[in-house]
Design goal:
Layout: H1 13-16, H2 29-36, H3 46-50, H4 57-65, H5 69-77, H6 83-89, H7 96-99, H8 111-125, E1 141-145, H9 149-160, E2 164-168, H10 177-180, H11 189-200, E3 205-207, H12 218-224, E4 227-230, E5 236-237, E6 250-252, H13 253-260, E7 279-283, H14 287-298, E8 303-307, H15 319-328, E9 331-333, E10 336-343, E11 349-359, E12 370-381, E13 384-387, E14 391-392, H16 395-400, E15 425-427, H17 430-433, H18 438-458
Helix pairs in contact: 2-4, 2-8, 4-5, 4-8, 5-8, 6-8, 9-18, 13-14, 14-15
The structure holds flavin-adenine dinucleotide and iron/sulfur cluster.
Flavin-adenine dinucleotide binds next to helix 9, helix 14, helix 17 and helix 18.
């Protein structure tokens, strides 16, 4: 008998679009063991090579079958220190689950949900976590700039290798996009805080409200530390360069989500100002665009329309988020491009003029370009627009990190070992690649930690 993948349960769409509670529930023990027992423990282990940090997936799944959830967590933590986060936000359908042999039947093992189950089970069932204490304590000190997944991974791996590590974070909270970008209903902040507190036990020191390049100079860090890791992310929003982008009611997704998540504008008692609108248009179709649209729904919008110039097939967002957004009533306007944001008499946005597009044949890079169709203009009425078409690295890096090589878009240039052009300075995550994924940022942090360790030991 064919057993279908055990799907996660979730709150009903009608209810969840009124609250910020997490949408999907974790598996219970019984379902987790049943799902795990579908794993064939393939000799070739294709799922492992699909994971950017090579978690030993068959091994941890086998331990779940044996009800040995704590050891399953320890197996994951050998290469991934943020399993509760990754189990929730990794695009598994493009990574490990894409290579699972059951995929051919549309039935991959739910690797992400199992990872999440193991992390959640351990969090709610133990008080003391297993910490790896370094065998040898070394005297060298490493400065880590930023506290997103790239920096946190690099910091912990360096601490495990015995180095003294200080993390400098510009904001008043640790976690990077995990706290200021991804909303509560996808990644509850108590889970991020728990994972970070666990990392603190490795002896990493954290300094908040420390903007490197402003409050402390890059040169000061280089002079006082034996090595530096830069994980400053890509927090500078891109705009569309069309008329009307500075009207009242037009937000970058960055600003909108930071107000709601980091500054807690969604809580009734919060004094962070946030505009509440009835008709919201969101530009873009990645995770950021969907997070912004679903947040707008939860803040009371009656209609939320996502405008995307390509088709559903090209949407970069996680499949689960697209499904959840559709269930909650987000409207998708594909093959459409905004050309102008229009204003009422008071300088506030009241509609968006768009044009329809068709997709070209794939170019040599396989990408299909959207080509505007003549005389196909149409308008969407709205009282708020959110721009979520991508971000670039913060210009502070290019401007104030003297001598550091960056490309034309301000991304830091590194080699395959995460080394920059400056001796002892390493970088990784979105600051190097542009916006990518949590797990890729973590992979870069791991590579950098290994390189830093080799560099300092050789020195
Ligand atoms: P960040 O997480 O951006 O962290 C950088 C940190 O550096 C920040 O805390 C910043 O304040 C700090 N910093 C910057 N400059 C300085 C300075 N000069 N001094 C000190 N500190 C500084 N990825 C997924 O895999 N799945 C998802 O579902 C997903 N959803 C997303 C939703 C949103 C809304 C966003 C914005 C991104 C999403 N991503 C998702 C992408 C993912 O979050 C990023 O790829 C990842 O967080 C990059 O990690 P990072 O460590 O490079 O940088
Ligand atoms: Fe199990 Fe799928 Fe990995 Fe095979 S590919 S070991 S079935 S998770």
């Amino acid at each position: 008998m064919k057993i279908n993948r055990y799907r996660e349960k979730s709150l009903s769409a009608d209810f969840r679009k009124t609250v910020f509670d997490e949408v999907a529930f974790t598996y219970d023990e019984d379902i987790a063991v049943k799902e795990a027992s579908r794993c064939l423990n393939c000799k070739s282990r294709p799922c492992v090579s699909g994971c950017p940090v090579n978690v030993d997936i068959p091994k941890f799944i086998h331990l779940i079958c044996e009800h040995n959830f704590f050891d399953a967590l320890n197996v994951i933590k050998e290469t991934n220190q943020l399993p509760a986060v990754c189990g929730r936000v990794c695009p598994q359908e493009q990574q490990c689950e894409k290579y699972c042999v059951h995929r051919k039947a549309g039935n991959s093992i739910a690797i992400g949900s199992l990872e999440r189950f193991v992390a959640d089970f351990s969090r709610t069932n133990v008080t003391e976590n297993q910490i790896i204490h370094p065998a040898i304590k070394r005297k060298e000190a490493i400065a880590v700039i930023g506290s997103g997944p790239a920096s946190l991974t690099c910091a912990v791996d360096c601490a495990i290798a015995g180095f003294n590590v200080i993390v400098f974070e510009a904001l008043h909270e640790l976690g990077g996009v995990l706290v200021f970008g991804i909303p509560e209903f996808r990644l509850p902040k108590n889970i991020v805080h728990f994972e970070i507190e666990r990392l603190e036990k490795y002896g990493v020191e954290f300094k908040l409200n420390a903007v490197i390049g402003k409050t402390i100079t890059f040169e000061q860090l280089r002079a006082n530390f034996d090595a530096v890791f830069i994980g400053t992310g890509a927090g500078l929003p891109r705009f569309m360069d069309i008329p009307g982008e500075s009207l009242n009611g037009v937000y970058s997704a960055n600003e909108y989500l930071t107000r709601v998540n980091l500054m807690k504008a969604y809580l009734p008692e919060s004094d962070t100002p946030i505009q509440k609108a009835n008709n919201v248009v969101v530009f873009g179709a990645g995770n950021v665009a969907l997070d912004a649209s679903r947040t707008a729904l939860r803040l009371g919008a009656k209609n939320v329309t996502v405008v995307y110039r390509r088709s559903r097939n090209e949407m970069p967002a996680r499949a689960e988020e697209v499904r959840h957004a559709e269930e909650e009533g987000v409207i998708f306007k594909f093959l459409s491009m905004p050309v102008e944001l229009l204003s009422d008499d008071y300088g506030s946005i009241n509609s968006v003029r768009c044009i329809s597009c068709v997709l070209s044949d794939p170019g040599t890079d396989g990408r299909r370009i959207s080509v505007p169709l003549a005389n196909s203009d149409f308008e969407i009425k709205c009282d708020m627009a959110i721009i979520a078409i991508g971000t670039d690295p913060n210009p502070i890096v290019k401007k104030h990190f003297t001598g550091l090589a960056t490309n034309a878009r301000g991304m830091i240039i590194t080699d395959e070992n995460a080394a920059t052009n400056l001796s002892g300075v390493y970088a990784g995550g979105d600051a190097v690649t542009g916006v990518a994924t949590v797990i890729l940022a973590m992979g870069a942090g791991k590579t950098a930690a290994l390189s830093i360790s080799k560099y300092l030991k050789a020195k």
